[in-house]
Amino acid sequence: MRGPTRAPYGRRMTVRTLTRLRDLRLVDALIAVGFAVLIVAELLAHMDDGYRAGPAAWNAPILLGTVTALAWRRRSTGWALVTGYAFALVPSLFVAHTIFFFGTLIPLLVLSFTAAERLSTRWLAWSLLGPVLLLVIVPIHQPGFDAGDVVFWVMLSAIAVGLGLLVRRLNQHRSALAATLAEQVRDQAAREEALLTEERSRIARELHDVVAHAVSVMVVQAGAARLAVGFDDDEARTGMLAVESAGREALIDLRRLLGLLRTHTDEVAVQPTPGIAMLDELVTRMQASGLAITVQVTGMPAPLPAGLDLSAYRIIQEALTNTLKHAGPTSVTVAIHYGEALTLDITDAGPAPGHIRRRTPVGHGIIGMRERATLFGGTFAAGLSGNSWRVQVSVPRPVNQSTETATATT
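Now predict its structure.
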């Protein structure tokens, strides 16, 4: 048996290299090595920028000491800045020394840039002494260091510090944006959780009516059966009495549960529990609001359990309401298929002319439809299909549906 396929060696090495380059310490070390290579080139080519002075044997250690500070410029910015300028300025206090472009000026500018980017405002002010001291110390033994060199160094230092401050400000804005985004994500999650809890509570209150009705039927039937049993059948009478008593207790507990779930804004239902049978009335109301609705029913229609019937009705109602709210008065097709599963497919024809579809926010509509579908072990999907918004729900129908239907509708 062949083992799992491995990525080519070259690709693995590239991935490892990119992963390592995310470590800023490694990047800084590579930068220091790069400048060291440039120093060697400068020394060999005698690129001393016109300032050939001082013992030549000192050039290599002094320049290498300056660029070595770049290796820890982000880990310890203050010490790196002091080290780099010390290697450049201390020798210049005693004797005129060669100033190299890649070995002295550019590394010092990189250190000033890093200081402006990373140091606090207080320490940044002290770090500006480095460029100033260079203008004071180098001319002591370098009479050729004229006003043009001063302007050149001031201009380069100002650019380095300015870029550092700019990057610092951008980093601050990015951090603030990331914090704001994280806070918005937390708030969005909290709102979705609150909406989910509220919607589940609303569904529970609606299903209470269905369950309470079924329990009421059970109590009535048990009581009638108890009265119909012969007076000599004490065992059957006792069993029926136990069923009736348990049903009454369950009904009392359900009413207590409803009182716990109901909010002060809820109204006690006085109309029959809606279901697919009342779909025509819903369609009529929605058509009066501007929707052109086409209902397609396929399969073998059959009565549904009361809870599933209510949820199917609510899903269609929410889908049509969302369409009217977000797409305007457009046309909608409601397809209902009765098979091993009850399938609902509500698709609009796109936004009405002159109407821009509003972004569908997370609210009662989407959450409610999803919760009602999953409550009965079904699936839910909603989203754009081309220019149309489509809601698809599939809920398995109970195997012994006739029994459950009879119990719920008696």
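Strands lie at 292-299, 331-338, 341-348, 379-385, 388-396.
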